[in-house]
Design goal:
heterodimer, A: 115 residues, mainly beta, globular, B: 111 residues, 5-stranded antiparallel β-sheet, 5-stranded mixed β-sheet, 10 strands, 51% strand
Chain lengths: 115, 111
């Protein structure tokens, strides 16, 4: 596989469920990102990891818990979500953070529905 | 959080028309400006990363200009084709954080 992959592509969960989103990049990048895309809103940055270390948490509720075990993998653990958390969750990677000069490569996203 | 404005919100043109969009952003603490194309059911894809005032970049029929002093960038598409139909996102980087995306301009090109 090449590029950035995400699984699952679609997820429906109840408010009491625990689930995880997975992202894998095959580009040798060192920075990885989670974004949220809600209807009629711009892409919102959630978390940033650089060389496996979290460098940014954009005031995300604790029911979203990221994990970055190595530079190639990024997880988003979901627990007791709310219906308003239904959205498209995108993962991205870049060579590193380098002051914003590196383009980001995006995965196809996970469409999450919380019932 | 940066205030990023993109206009128009949506645009419908005929095949062969040329078109342009605007991205406005704060001119202070500017590091870089990214343009992405996001086709339906696909991943956002980088078009350009621009850093210098007066920068002009081109990829095929698509080009972009950058004015960092007044805080805007233009994206031009010459001779639009149906395959250009997508949402075009701009995202400035201020150096304090990562990218801040605008809401995008949704382009529909009819044959």
């Amino acid at each position: 596989e090449t590029g950035v992959t995400q699984t699952p592509r679609h997820l429906v969960m109840g408010m009491t469920n625990k689930k995880s989103l997975k992202c894998e990049q095959h580009l040798g990048h060192n920075a990885m990102y989670w974004y949220k895309q809600s209807a009629k809103k711009p892409l919102e940055l959630m978390f940033v990891y650089n060389f496996k270390e979290q460098t940014e948490n954009n005031s995300v509720p604790s029911r979203f818990s990221p994990e970055c075990p190595n530079s190639s993998h990024l997880f988003l653990h979901l627990h007791t979500l709310q219906p308003e958390d239904s959205a498209l969750y995108l993962c991205a990677s870049s060579q590193d953070l380098a002051g914003g000069y590196n383009e980001q490569f995006f995965g196809p996203g996970t469409r999450l529905t919380v019932l | 959080i940066l205030n990023v404005e993109q206009s128009p919100q949506s645009l419908h043109v005929q095949e062969g028309d040329s078109t342009n969009f605007t991205c406005s952003f704060p001119s202070s603490n500017f590091y870089a400006l990214h343009w992405y194309r996001w086709e339906t059911a696909k991943s956002p894809e980088a078009l350009f990363v621009m850093t210098l005032n007066g920068d002009e970049k081109k990829k095929g029929r698509i080009s972009a200009t950058l004015n960092t002093k007044e805080g805007y960038s233009y994206l031009y598409i010459k001779g639009s084709q149906p395959e250009d139909s997508a949402t075009y996102l701009c995202a400035p980087h201020s150096g304090y954080s990562t990218l801040t995306f605008g809401k995008g301009t949704m382009l529909l090109v009819s044959p």
